Fold:
Amino acid sequence: MKQIKFNSLRCSSLLLFAALTLSIGAQTQQQKTKPYSLNRNKVYYQRQPMIEADYRSFVDLGFGYAKDRYNVYYLGRILPHVDPMTFRLRVAIQPYPDDYYPTDDDMYDTDDYYGYRITSNAVLFRGKKISDSPRSFKDLGWGYGKDSFNVYYMGQKMEGVFSSTFKVLEDGYAEDTFDTYYKGQKVN
Structure:
């Protein structure tokens, strides 16, 4: 009789341990995934469809915030009385000091926050609007991007650069018809 109770207790303990292990694994995996996703012309927050969201203009701003042309969202819910055209996130600290350029590994993190984001009506870099020409904008790699009229490095407009002839070489180097550039700076 005691042997049966002991075996029953042992099986119950193993099942409880397995359930706890699976639960912790699922929570860890959920924390690693991005909360917002787009699929089949719909927007989802943690796999739940957001009926009111416009997928064509939807932008994940990070830190749980997102917006489209109609609304601003926090954790999947509409923030009432917030204008999406003027709303933007401010990062509490400057991401890079003036004398520091990120390494290539830093620059190409898989998180969209660190790259150019092309929407239906604008081009964003780290959540900041940099161009009104999304149809002609191209992310050239190595931190460079261009549209029909301007060239950008890490979201900053480069002055005096010819967009029509601008091309990226490698290792942070680029050139146009007259000049060569390294990490957005003209090489003398």
